[in-house]
Amino acid sequence: MKYARKTDLIIIAIIAVLALVFWLLNKFIFAEKGAYAEIYHDSTLVYRIELSTAKAGLFSIPGKPEVVFQLYADGSIAFSESDCPDKVCIRSGRLTIAGQFAACLPNRILLKIIADDQDHEGPDLIIE
User: How far apart are CA 7 and CA 61, in angstroms?
Assistant: First the structure.
């Protein structure tokens, strides 16, 4: 008994190729490189780091020395160490593109990358 016909496989292949093309376009052409990294602890902004001028190295935030961030020379940032049990924040990898974020939920820390032209004091969403 056949489960898929030849035309079904062709349609699936076309959809997979289109998905790959759109993903590559988004990642390499339309993605905006992040200008700043913001680190929040308990919903309070702790650090705002300019990624293009920051020195490479390790640092932690006040009150949470067990959570360590690493800045890289290419303008990316990542969680390097954490005392949380699941280590999802560390496995999120390097963040470089505006809109990317990583969170360490047990420690209530959020790391997000933002673009240069975003309004930081304004609301995130306006519903009329």
Answer: 56
Residue ranges of domains in the chain: 1-30, 36-114
pLDDT tens sequence across 43-75: 899 999 998 888 899 999 988 889 999 999 988
Which residues of the chain form beta strands (DSSP E)?
A: 36-41, 44-50, 57-61, 64-71, 77-81, 101-104, 109-114
Bridge partners of 81, per DSSP, are: 68
Give the burial string for 98-128 (b: 16+ CB within 10 Å, else e).
bebebbbeebebbbbbbeeeeeeeeeeeeee
CATH number given to 36-114: 2.60.320.10
φ, ψ dihedrals at 52, nearest 5°: -75, -25
**Is the Cβ–Cβ distance between 99 and 113 less than 8 Å?**
yes
Q: Does the predicted TM-score (pTM) go above 0.85?
A: no
